[in-house]
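Title: Prediction job returns without error message
Component: structure pipeline
Severity: low
Priority: P3
Assignee: unassigned

Description:
Job completed but the reporter wants confirmation the result is attached to the right record. Sequence as submitted:
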Amino acid sequence: MSRIHIPFVTPQPLGASRDEIVLIAKGAISALGLEGLHLELGIADLEGKIVMAQMPLISLEVFGPGEFVIYHGQMTNWMFNRFTIATALGHYILHYPRVADLSPVTGMQVISNQDHPEATPKQAVIEAMWFATELLMSEVPFRAAFAKGGIAGVCQDLLVTRSIAETRARSLGLAEAVAAA
């Protein structure tokens, strides 16, 4: 994958509901054989690369179909990086097709810092995070891990951070159980 000089745009939101994003994620997981525990293999199958960077300003660069690089920080823990990687993959699957349709010679960049003047629109970030949540913590495995061991069980079984697991638990109506933990 060579760095070629092409114009880059930021992803634009689909304007889809959470349920619509979950359906897209489920379809991608099924069609591409993506499984949350084997995220890195799924990205390699899509011909993407994952690169560690000291303090990445960009979390995703797409040069064309099957030509993308996901960046994650070396100063953050592995489970947090998995969510970052899954979110970047969400941008690639959800938002890049529209960029490619509008201009096949245009790439896409996701700026990590929301204060940056060219930051990715917040709704596009939210959509990508919904995708990542479904990829790493779909409801049935999440509830099973939660029933077995609470938030700690979710973190252990699904390889996510406590804060991400707690957010998912609240979205599934398990807030009382989280508060008691």
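Comment from assignee: result matches the submitted record. The two ends are 46 Å apart (CA to CA).
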